[in-house]
Amino acid sequence: MPARAIQVGQVWKKDDSGESYLVTKLYDEALTTYALLRKAGAETERALKIKIDRHATQSTLPGFTYTQESDDF
Length: 73
Fold this sequence. Notes:
- The protein is mainly β.
- The chain is built from 1 helix and 7 strands; from the N terminus they run E-E-E-E-E-E-E-H.
- It has one domain (11-70).
């Protein structure tokens, strides 16, 4: 599910495992924007680096669903 803008502090659910991830950092590399995500409740695990897909007015993280839109935490 897309979001208008991906922001630090948002919670996204990984589609294949159902685990919740928190967006901890956003940064640009060349012409691409990436999000760093950490699994909720497992802050010592390595962060995932995910390329943000942008289409018109919405953004998505491939393989993740924006949980705040669905109220599914």
